Amino acid sequence: MEAFDVTTLGLLLFVASLVAMATHRLKLPYSVGLVTAGIILALLPLGIALPLTPDLIFFVFLPPLVFEAAIQIPWKPFRRELPLLVALVTLGVILAAGLVAVGMHWAAGWSWLGAAFFGVLIAATDPVSVIAAFKSMHVESRLHLLVESESLLNDGVAAVAFAILVMFATGEEAGAAAVGIRLVETIVGGIAAGAIVALPLILIAGRTSDRLIEVTLTMLVAYGSFLLAEHFHCSGVLATLTAGLIVGNYGFLGSISDDGRPAVLNHWEYVAFLANSLIFILIGGREVEMHIWDVIEAAALATLLALAGRAVAVYPVMASFAGSALRVPWKYKHILFWGGLRGALALALALALPASVVERETIITVAFAVVAFSIFVQGLTMPWLINKLDLRVKTVAKSEDSPA
């Protein structure tokens, strides 16, 4: 954080602006251009430090990214899809993490603890470039909802599972009862923290029609909910997700003024743009420091296992809903599978691995390799796949389920 000074920030924002203009003109995913720019900056003899730390990702970048996505999720269709989403982010994450962990233990020789940590962190998805492609290509609304909602919930579950593994790694009591209690505390506490922060601040926002104050209060909601949950060792992701859903649905229905709503949405769109820009440039800069060729076999194996794990998390789980009203078209399944990119949260968890994990440095390097593959290969091919599957709507109309 000390190396992340104002001059560096200004340079990165200038680079991000140029990359945004170039990728828009070239019709390339924004994240790919940013990571490439980060790699170039790191290779140039400019003497610029590009720090990427768990605290920077968790406490600076992650809250606004989760909040910005959550305030745009309409409650009615989200509630309708919730059984499917819960199955994807519980059973799906368990299956994906388990397959990766077993594969890395038996094929790469990693310890069970190291393999389990890697399986959990690499199960966390971050389809930023996919969502960007959805917005520019106007894909069907249900697909957009499923991908974005599943990613947010997926991140929360992966972070919770990671916290449980830390109990084992640090020698805390980790019996079945202790793990169960910790699991409930983390999830329920996170949801409660989001509601405790969001509801009173939204009520205060209802006492004013000044859009600048309303925007400020939503900033307090986003960061306050995350920090409160993390202070009590609960899930900050679930807290901010809950707070975002409250603001985006209940808040927009009355507490936030008619003038305030577009101001809030525009503000958070800009904040998310800044956070994503900085994250992906920093990822590119850190990629240069990784000695990926030293672990290329493990990285290749991990990439294949991550794809296989994602397939197991998507296709069988969704198949169980085939006979219900929540059945999912095969086209959607393919997008959910290939669009399960890995990004900032996976790297933050990797960098936060306890020192007691024997394979810690190897896991960090391999995680960066898997993230690079997902950004450059999956991210670049996603627009082509959307067109190939003919998932674009012909006319763009406002959905009836959009938040009022």
TrEMBL record:
Its main location: membrane. It is a multi-pass membrane protein. One of its GO terms (biological process) is regulation of intracellular pH. It is found in: Cell membrane. GO terms for cellular component: plasma membrane. Residues 15-387 form the Cation/H+ exchanger transmembrane domain. One of its GO terms (molecular function) is potassium:proton antiporter activity. Keywords: Antiport, Cell membrane, Ion transport, Membrane, Sodium, Sodium transport, Transmembrane, Transmembrane helix, Transport. It holds the Pfam family Na_H_Exchanger. It comes from the Bacteria. The chain crosses the membrane at residues 6-23, 30-50, 56-75, 82-104, 110-132, 152-171, 183-205, 235-256, 268-286, 298-323, 335-357, 363-386. InterPro entries: Cation/H_exchanger_CPA1 (IPR018422), Cation/H_exchanger_TM (IPR006153). Belongs to the monovalent cation:proton antiporter 1 (CPA1) transporter (TC 2.A.36) family. This is Sodium:proton antiporter.
